[in-house]
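Every protein is a chain of amino acids, and every chain bends into a shape of its own. The protein below has been through that process, and both of its lines are reproduced in full.
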Amino acid sequence: MTYASLMVYVDDEADNVARIGFARDLAAIHDATLIGMAVSEPEPPLVDAYVAGGMAGEILALRRDQADGELSAAKARFMAAMKDTGIRHEWRAETGYPASCVARHARAADLILVGRDAGRSPYRAPDAGDLIMNVGRPVLIAPPRALAAPVDGVALVAWKEGREAQRAVAAALPLLRQAREVQVVEICASADVAAAAARTADVAEWLNRHGVAAESEARPRDERPAGDRILACVEQTGANLVVAGAWGHSRMREWVLGGVTQALLNRSQSWLMLSH
C-alpha cells in the first residue's frame, strides 16, 4: 500500500510546522499529491443587552474579516512550505464548521493529518475526536509541540479485536514499514491472555508478511484503566507513533469516545494514527 494523496490541516498551533513538514516529507516519499486545507467559522457573538441593542451585526462582520484573514495567513504558510519542493500540491479553504468541512473534503485524500491541541477553538480547527468518528479516512494526529516525525523509531499498535483496529493497522502500513521496531500489544483480562496472545501474534505475522518487523505481546489488566495501561506501554517502549482503532457511540448527535481513545487523544505525547 502507498499513499497517493494526503491532506494536511493548516493553522497556527505549535505543532503546525512539524505537521506540515511531515506531510510534505510523506508526500515526497510516496510521490503523492499534498492538499493543504484550512477552515474558519466566524464565532457568533454572545447575545446580551449590549449586542441585542444593535452591535451583533457589526461584531459578526468583524469576526468574518478575522476568519478571512486567518484563511489567507494559512494559505501563505502552506505555500511557503511547498515552495521549490517539486511536490504536487493544492490549496482548499472554506468558511464553515471545521470538523464537518474537513470530513467532507476527506474524500480527496488517503490520509488526513491534523493537530490535537484541546485548547484550540472548534471554530478554527477540527476537534480530532469529532473528526475521527465522522470521517471515512484514517487520521494522523500530531501531538502538541510535535518535533520529530513519527518514523524511524518505535511504533506501538494498541490492538483491540474489531474492524476499527484492523482498518487502522492497514492504513498505517506505509508508516509502519518505516519504523525501526513495531510492538503489537493487547491489554486483556487475565483469563484471556492465551487468546489475546494468539490474536496479536496473527497481527504481527500479517505485518511481517508486509515487510514490517513486528513483535507481539498480550498484557493482563491490572487496577489501572486500559487507557492508562496503553499510555504506560507507550512510555516504556518510547513509541513515537501509536496505531489504534477509535471507538465511540453516538448520543444525541455527539460522539462519546471510549476510554482508551479518549486517553490517547487527551494525554498521549506521541503521534496517533486512528481509524473508526
Summary: Residues 251-255 have pLDDT under 50 and may be disordered.
